[in-house]
Write a structure and sequence with these properties.
oxidoreductase, about 525 residues, metal-binding, Carotenoid_Oase, about 10% helix, mainly beta, metal ion binding, carotenoid dioxygenase activity, 39 strands, 6-stranded mixed sheet
Length: about 525
């Protein structure tokens, strides 16, 4: 055991490579599983970090493991399989990463000829399709995705299907890992393009057709947003959606093409090495009507922030209310290298995240007075101040610091929600080893925490079909126990915030990033 590890707490089980299951495992149930709960939770996340003697550098480089929890008749079955991406299959053949990942430089493919190996060694022409971030539906089909331009179709049996290249449909070189879906099945997403000018393309996949292929044929780019930087593009992981608008936040964490060019000259590097944090810049808020029209008013934050996840957004009395989980900087990404994570008992916390609310007044800036608060919503500390042609947005802090993977009742996506749910980060803070429920109006915070050795993953809200209130339902979350006890799926009554049961497994339940719950058709 490394000297800096304590005898009683070892975080390395959180970051170990997992393995596939040949057959689903049925859980041992403690407490109760709600009898009305009938469906499947699908998840994806980094799952394989080691291939022989080779280990990837960064946690986000781990090859995707697909997993599912089938819930019905008060029973739970667990299954997991690796996503057979090109990146995974090439790495398994070569014994190391061939395609460039977030923190790991790609290598020359030994299965290519000499000329092809020479080209790939100096220019990262092939983007990874290691879709280890999220799962979302297009029509009846499921897809895994990340921040690249590729998404992979998968079956409900966790089989890997065809790769979809959004560059061919929308001219994208990368896209948000969190597409958003309306109630009628229409899908929106935002990606970046750098071949015909640096810009972001907003695309729409309408619910026309019976299959995802038919829907994709009817898809189109509805708007383009030019980058405000001539030599870079903002890193974009998620965006917001209301009834009538999409909200894109251009953050000052950019893919620097000067850094990319330099890496080509030096023989290539990892994606993270191309990123640059411009702390002196501000975040730009871009509002897009769902018709594709860009709102011309310029909105900027009062100071720079980094973020990964929107919590929600909605319209109210001529204003757009936006809740996001924000950091002061992207320093968190520097704390996610596998070698460091496996050799410590605590993860140093730098610039921890918290929930922040921004309010955008939908007004003509020419008619708005200067140096006064333009926010009309009552009971908020969020402000919007006009100076010249720019409206500066000042946030209201809506939570303590140290939470991530926020979730809401999906029935309230784009509508006013009173609650959101989140998990604590692996750092030591008020949210450590917990799941939480936060009231967005009062900031009241409720915790589920059982042991300092238990690390919950993303909370997923599942509505009770007989319920009326926003929080009528259950939260489910996969919990990894680093004390070598059983990993489990916990069930928490979202209204009372009391644990009602857990499903325990003898097999390893890997930490995932995001999941999707699908109700069974008969439920």
């Amino acid at each position: 055991m490394p000297a800096n590890l304590t005898e009683d707490k070892d975080l390395s089980p959180l970051f170990r490579s997992t393995e596939e299951l040949e057959e689903p495992e049925e859980a041992v149930i403690e407490g109760e599983v709600p009898s009305w709960l009938n469906g499947t939770l699908f998840r994806t996340g980094p799952g394989k970090f080691d291939i022989g003697n080779f280990t990837v550098n960064h946690w986000l480089d781990g090859y995707a493991i697909l997993s599912k929890f089938e819930i019905g008749n008060s029973k739970v079955k667990f299954h997991k399989r690796f996503l057979r991406s090109d990146a995974y299959q090439k790495a398994m053949l070569a014994g190391r990463s061939i395609l460039t990942e977030f923190g790991t430089k790609g290598s020359a493919d030994p299965n290519k000829n000499i000329f092809s190996r020479l080209v790939s060694s100096v220019f990262p022409v092939e983007m990874t399709d290691n879709d280890c971030v999220s799962i979302f539906p297009i029509g009846p089909d499921l897809f895994t995705t990340s921040d690249s331009c590729f998404m992979r179709k998968m079956t409900q049996d966790l089989e890997t299907c065809e790769k979809v290249d959004t560059n061919k449909y929308f001219g994208l070189n990368g896209a948000s890992a969190h597409p958003l879906r309306e109630e009628d099945g229409t899908v929106y997403n935002i990606g970046f393009s750098c071949l015909t000018g640096l810009k972001f393309n907003v695309y729409k996949i309408p619910r026309k057709g019976f299959t995802s292929k038919e829907m994709m044929k009817n898809s189109k780019v509805i708007a383009s947003i030019p980058s405000r930087w001539s030599t870079g593009l903002a890193y974009n992981h998620s965006f917001g959606m209301t009834e009538n608008y999409l909200i894109f936040i251009e953050q000052p964490y950019i893919v620097s093409f000067s850094k990319l060019a330099s890496s080509v000259v030096k023989g290539g590097s990892a994606f993270k090495d191309w990123l640059e944090w411009k702390s002196e810049e501000k975040n730009r808020f871009v509002v897009i009507e769902k018709s594709g029209k860009l709102i011309k008013t310029e909105y900027y934050s009062s100071s720079a922030f980094f973020f990964l996840h929107f919590i929600n957004a909605y319209e109210q009395d001529g204003e757009i209310i936006i809740d996001i989980n924000a950091y002061k900087s992207p320093a968190v990404l520097d704390k996610m290298y596998i070698r460091d994570l496996r050799s410590t008992s605590t993860v140093e916390e730098v610039d921890p995240p918290c929930a922040q609310r921004f309010i955008i007044p939908l007004i003509d800036p020419k008619a708005a007075p200067e140096e006064v608060n333009l926010v009309r919503a009552e009971g908020t500390l969020a402000r919007a101040i006009k100076a010249g042609h720019v409206i500066t947005l000042y946030p209201e802090i809506k939570s303590d610091y140290g939470l991530e993977l926020p979730a809401i009742n999906k029935n309230f996506l784009g509508k006013k929600a009173n609650y959101f749910y989140a998990a604590g980060t692996v750092c030591e803070n008020i949210f450590s080893n917990s799941l939480c429920k936060i009231n967005l109006e009062t900031r009241e915070t409720q915790f589920w925490r059982r042991s300092e050795f238990m690390y919950p993953g993303e909370p997923v809200f599942i509505r009770n079909p007989q319920g009326q209130a926003e929080d009528d339902g259950v939260i489910i979350s996969a919990v990894t126990d680093v004390s070598k006890e059983n990993d489990f799926l916990v069930f928490i009554d979202a209204k009372s915030w009391q644990e009602i049961g857990r499903a325990l497994f003898s097999s390893h339940v890997p930490q995932a990033l995001h999941g999707l719950f699908l109700e069974n058709p008969s439920s």
